[in-house]
Design a protein that fits this description.
Elements (H helix, E strand, L loop, with lengths): L4 E2 H32 L3 H30 L2 E2 L10
Parallel strand pairs: 1-2
Helix pairs in contact: 1-2
Amino acid sequence: MNQTLPRQHIAEQISECNQTINRASDLQVSLYGLVSMVGETPEMKELALQAAEAIDQLRDIAKGRIQLLSTMKTTKAPIEEGEAV
């Protein structure tokens, strides 16, 4: 990818990806708790496990996005008139 983005924009996207990863991890912990609660109901257990796998995929995509963003060339964001010291 040859696109160049301002550092602040990349940092914001990385932060959003990290938040997604953290929230997905919290969700997954809850789902595994749900799997243990449904016990002998195979249909419910299977759905909960599928949801947990989907969350794994979401986290992997977010981690990949972070790696991609981390390797991008950056430019300094222009200083706006209101920010000048």
